Amino acid sequence: MEERSFLFHIGPVWFDGTIVLMTLLTCAIVFSVVFAFSRNLQMKPKGKQNALEYVIDFVRGIASSQLPANEVSNYHFLAFSLFMFVLVANEIGLVTKIVTPDDVTFWKSPTADPIVTLSLAFMVMLLTHFFGSQKFGLKGYIKNSFMEPAAVILPIKFIEEFTNIISLGLRLYGNIYAGEVLLGLIIQMVNGLGWLVLPFAIILETTWIGFSLFIGGIQAYVFTTLTMVFLSHKIVKE
Question: What is residue 34's predicted lDDT score, i.e. its pLDDT?
Answer without folding.
Answer: 93
